[in-house]
């Protein structure tokens, strides 16, 4: 396997790991929200991430105004995503949230086509349909009653599609490291959530739970910071540089399948046969996107020799 192929495989595995930790985050977030409100939890989660990654911001000192504006813009997109998604999870069922957030897989190819000019391939289109069918089965076969929480999750899915395309475009600029981008985005999200919390009526800013007697809350916060934020956003920002937004969305689209598996193994929830079938279709879609991308095709190099490259 060539070095580019190994790097692509590593990016794919990182994205699948992100989907796994984000799939588990729904239950973790619900547990943490029993102790602390939405905006306060988001401020704590991203504020701690910003503090841990602050040294990486040194690499942005030489960045131009256009790059810094792009970094700030993707931070605002993440702020919108997490506010909509976290309030949505609070107001709707996990099944509805799992299906609606998966619509990002359908929306991303269209955003990429309209914005970046890359038309999705036939294989990617088939993978999108497989993923959506799986998410529909996973959510109970369409037994959904649409409410305000569902609307927020749907908006979060659209913002996710826009954000992955914006990040792809931003990461093409030389000198911008994934760690620096993750740090700056975390700072924007933390500051935005803090501002919303302080201006909310009534203020969404109660005292933090004490360390003694609240082990479950602080364990949830630690997992959300280290796995679901620090690792996940670094991995996504790193992988999107070597891949297309549609491909990233397909691999990340396995998130609901991992969420269902986590709910079954960790939370003791019962999963129906239709839900397992839906999870299988989502995994199949991710594998289809992964395997087909690495099918070699012959191209002629500048020197005239035939080389093997990966799609």
Structure description:
With 311 residues, this protein is mainly α. It has one domain. Helices cover 72% and strands 3% of the residues. The protein has twelve helices and two strands. The protein has helices at 3-33, 38-53, 65-91, 94-101, 103-116, 122-138, 148-171, 178-199, 215-239, 245-252, 255-265, 273-293; strands at 296-300, 306-310. The chain has a two-stranded antiparallel ribbon. A hairpin with a 5-residue loop joins strand 1 (296-300) and strand 2. Helix 11 (255-265) crosses helix 12 (273-293). The radius of gyration is 20 Å and the shape is globular. The two termini are 14 Å apart. The model is unreliable at 293-311 (pLDDT under 50).
Brief digest:
The chain has 311 residues and is mainly α.
What topology does this entry show?
Elements: H1 3-33, H2 38-53, H3 65-91, H4 94-101, H5 103-116, H6 122-138, H7 148-171, H8 178-199, H9 215-239, H10 245-252, H11 255-265, H12 273-293, E1 296-300, E2 306-310
Antiparallel strand pairs: 1-2
Helix pairs in contact: 1-9, 1-11, 2-8, 2-9, 3-7, 3-8, 4-6, 4-7, 5-6, 5-7, 5-10, 6-12, 8-9, 10-12, 11-12
Straight-line N-to-C gap? 14 Å
* Multimerization state: single chain
Strand content: under 5%
The tally of structural domains comes to 1
Class computed from helices, strands and strand pairing: mainly alpha
Helix content: over 70%
Mean pLDDT across all residues, rounded? 78
- Sheet bearing the most strands, described? 2 strands, antiparallel
N-to-C series of helices and strands: HHHHHHHHHHHHEE
What does the radius of gyration come to? 20 Å
Number of helices: 12
Total strands: the figure is 2
What is the molecular shape? Answer: globular
Return residue spans where pLDDT drops below 50 for at least 5 consecutive residues: 293-311
- Largest sheet, order of strands side by side? 1-2
């Amino acid at each position: 396997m060539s070095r580019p192929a190994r790097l692509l495989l590593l990016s794919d595995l990182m994205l699948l790991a992100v989907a796994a930790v984000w799939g588990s985050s729904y239950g973790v977030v619900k547990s943490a929200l029993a102790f602390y409100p939405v905006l306060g939890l988001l401020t704590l989660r991203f504020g701690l991430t910003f503090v841990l990654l602050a040294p990486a911001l040194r690499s942005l000192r030489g960045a131009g105004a256009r790059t810094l504006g792009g970094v700030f813009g993707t931070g605002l997109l993440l702020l919108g995503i997490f506010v909509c998604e976290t309030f949505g999870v609070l107001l709707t069922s996990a099944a509805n949230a799992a299906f609606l957030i998966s619509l990002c897989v359908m929306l991303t190819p269209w955003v990429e086509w309209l914005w970046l000019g890359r038309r999705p391939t036939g294989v990617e289109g088939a993978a999108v349909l497989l993923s959506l069918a799986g998410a529909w089965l996973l959510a109970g076969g369409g037994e959904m009653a649409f409410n305000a929480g569902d609307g927020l999750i749907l908006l979060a899915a659209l913002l996710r599609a826009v954000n992955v395309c914006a990040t792809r475009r931003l990461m093409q600029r030389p000198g911008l490291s994934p760690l620096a981008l993750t740090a700056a985005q975390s700072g924007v999200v933390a500051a935005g959530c803090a501002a919303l919390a302080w201006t909310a009526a009534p203020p969404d800013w109660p005292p933090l739970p004490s360390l003694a007697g609240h082990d479950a809350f602080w364990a949830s916060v630690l997992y959300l910071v280290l796995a679901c934020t620090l690792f996940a956003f670094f991995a996504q920002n790193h992988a999107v540089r070597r891949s297309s937004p549609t491909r990233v969305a397909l691999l990340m689209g396995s998130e609901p399948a991992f969420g269902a598996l986590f709910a079954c193994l960790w939370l003791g929830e019962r999963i129906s046969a239709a839900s397992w079938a839906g999870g299988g279709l989502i995994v199949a879609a991710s594998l289809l996107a992964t395997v087909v991308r690495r099918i070699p095709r012959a191209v002629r190099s500048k020197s005239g020799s035939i080389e093997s490259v990966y799609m």
